[in-house]
Amino acid sequence: MHTLVTAAGPAGAGLDSIATPTLWWATIAGVLGLFALDFVLTRKPHEVSMREAIGWSLFYIAIPVAFGAWLWQQHGSTTGVEYYTGYLVEKSLSVDNLFIFMLLLGSFAVPRHLQQRVLLIGVAGALVLRGIFIALGAQLIASWSAAFLLFGAILLLTAVKVLRDAMSPTDHAIDVGSMRVVRLTRRFFPVTDDYRGTRMTVRHNGARALTPLAMVTLAILGTDIVFAIDSVPAVYGITGDPYLVFATNAFALLGLRALYFVLEGALKHLAHLGYGLAVILAFIGVKLVLHWAHTVWPAVPTIPTLLSLAVIIGALVTVTLTSLLARRRAETGDVEAADDPEELERV
What we know:
A two-stranded antiparallel ribbon has the order 1-2. Strands 3-4 form a two-stranded antiparallel ribbon. The chain is built from 12 helices and 4 strands. The chain is mostly helical.
């Protein structure tokens, strides 16, 4: 039976939700428990093996999948489809976020054994920021009828930016020195040239100084703000239930530390991922605009959640296949060029 109650949890009050206060706090406790588990796993810095990364990634995928099955059984298919669709959207955006994390870790030359510590701090910051943005979004939706129009506009603008980045042939390397958070921090604190284990600050030349680990942590926390601005409106385009918005965001973020090491090499080959994310963001943006228009003019059609799920899965499958095909063609072209004597002479 699909029962709606007034959301009384931390995400906001006044919106219809499936969650009772007990379910809210149980979910938050579960998320914090899983995060604490991640902290215990990373307390001793070490290089993450592929076997370890795959094992924990499967664990962090199995939990939200099982939770979605419980939601489906307890609250009906509508809630179940909304949850799985929202989770898929958030996980897709999180994979794109991993690419930025990869660039930052490479730009700061973070040692392999320290990378998962930086990622864990990034996940913690993202969880806090998503919680804040979810609460603000819930209050905005409850008090302002045009909130969906605003969210839709944000997603459409983001889709244009993502598309431009995907079409740009330029190198996506990050210039650390040009980052605002780095420039601002260096105005007030000296920074050491080398890493000092897991320490963020040290005594250096008689003064307190930040380590590069602190700088990359600040840079990742800065990107978390941008990611929250994109992802929270995206999932509100799937469901208006703040509890489902929180759950999908939290579960999508928790497995990022392990998933990073699984996808570290594969992400470089998903050349068309940006196109798929642009399509998804634009589609959800249009869905939000139509939803707002429907509240003003009831004759305006809305997009059902099942159609949203089909479009999202179709976009992700398409760009994955086209990326793999493009990579295969590029490798074939390299082999043919290497076998061509005239091409070898040009080289």
